[in-house]
Amino acid sequence: MTAQNAALQREKDAATAEELKTRLEAQLFRRPAISDTTITPATSSYRRLSLIAMAFVISVLVAFAAVGLAHTAGRFNPSRPHH
Fold first, then answer.
1. CA angle 14, 18, 21 (to 5 degrees)
2. CB 53 within 8 A of CB 47
3. pLDDT tens digits along 58-77
């Protein structure tokens, strides 16, 4: 009885594995439809551009702050000769 159950379970497992393989291949090799939700919506490109613009503005502000900090740090450094 146990050998029969094991054989039936192996057949079920093989059938399940084959079905999963078929589904995976169908997902990998299909062409996306126009209404497919996996396609990136057009609004995300606007959002991506705005995030890039914000990152640029922040990096420019940080650069100015670093230059200002370096300038003031040199002014208060007693070992540095003053003009």
1. 140
2. no
3. 999 999 999 988 888 766 66
Radius of gyration of the chain (CA): 32
Is 41 within 8 Å of 35 (Cβ atoms)?
A: no
Quote the CA–CA distance of 32 and 26 in Å, as a whole number: 11
Q: Are 12 and 4 in contact (CB under 8 A)?
A: no
Tokens read off for 52: 């890039």
pTM, full prediction: 0.39
CA distance 68 to 74: 10
Taking each continuous run of H as one helix and of E as one strand, the counts in the chain are 2, 0
Q: What is the DSSP string of 22-43?
A: HHHHHHHSPPPPTT-TTSPPTH
